[in-house]
Amino acid sequence: MTNLHIQDPLIGKAAFIDVETTGLNPAVEEIIEMAIVLFSYHRQTGKILETIDQYVGLREPSCPISPGAYRVHRISKKAVQGKILDHSRIETMINQAEFIIAHNAQFDLSFVKRLFPEAASKPWLCSMTGINWYRKGYRSRGLQNLLTAHDIQVETAHRADADVRACLLLLSHQNPEGKSYLLELIERLQPAAKEQSG
C-alpha cells in the first residue's frame, strides 16, 4: 500500500511489535509467534493515520514450549510445527520504521534482536513503562488491564496479532490533557534515541 501523503514531513512511520515465546529467558527461549504493524502517524498530534503493512507469523522453535508459556498464549507444539517467519518481509518493515514500540519493550527487544539484529539499531519505546499509567489513576500497567479500563475488547488475549492491534487502539486514546498516548511516547523519543546511541 503506497500513499502520497507519506512524503509529508509531518507524517512519520513507526512499527509496533509483539512476540509470544517458549519462555521468559531470551538466552535459552525462542520466539514462536511474531506480529508487526507498520503504521503512519502525525508527528505533531501523535494521531495514528493508517496501517501501511502488517504481518503475523508462527515459528517452530528448537526448544520446547514451557508449560507456563503455553498457559499464557495457548500456542502448542503442533501449531508451530514446520512454521517459519517471513524474515525478508519483517526486515523490510523494521527498516522502514523510525522507531519501534512494544508493550514491555525490553522483553520483546531481547528476543527480536536475536533473529533481527537490525531491530537493535532502532529506538524502542515502551507503551508499558513509557507512560505513567499509575499517575493517571490506573492500578495496573498490564496490557489486558489497560485494555479493559479503556473499553477495548480483544478477540484473543496474549496472541501477538490481537495484542498489537489492541495496543494501537490504546495509543490512539487521549489522556486527560487531550494528548494521545502515542504523542506522550513520541515526546520521549529523543532522550531514548540519545541513550541508545550513547
What does this protein structure show overall?
The chain has 198 residues and is of the alpha/beta class. It has a single domain, classed as Nucleotidyltransferase, domain 5 (2-Layer Sandwich). 34% of the residues lie in helices and 20% in strands. The chain has eight helices and five strands. Strands 3-2-1-4-5 form a five-stranded mixed β-sheet, with helices on both faces. The longest helix has 13 residues.
Question: What layout of secondary structure does this protein have?
Answer:
Layout lengths: L10 E11 L9 E12 L5 E11 L8 H7 L3 H4 L6 H10 L3 E3 L2 H11 L8 E3 L16 H7 L10 H13 L8 H6 L2 H9 L1
Parallel strand pairs: 1-4, 4-5
Antiparallel strand pairs: 1-2, 2-3
Strand content: 15-25%
Record the strand order, biggest sheet. 3-2-1-4-5
Order of helices and strands: EEEHHHEHEHHHH
CATH 2nd-level architecture = 2-Layer Sandwich
User: How would a textbook summarize the main sheet?
Assistant: 5 strands, mixed
CATH topology (fold) name: Nucleotidyltransferase, domain 5
The secondary structure category is alpha/beta
Helix content: 25-40%
Please tell me how large the radius of gyration is: 17 Å
Tally the helices.
8
Class, according to the CATH hierarchy?
Alpha Beta
Beta strands, count: 5
Distance between the termini: 35 Å
CATH homologous superfamily assignment: Ribonuclease H-like superfamily/Ribonuclease H
Query: What is the overall pLDDT average?
Result: 92
Quickly count the domains.
Answer: 1
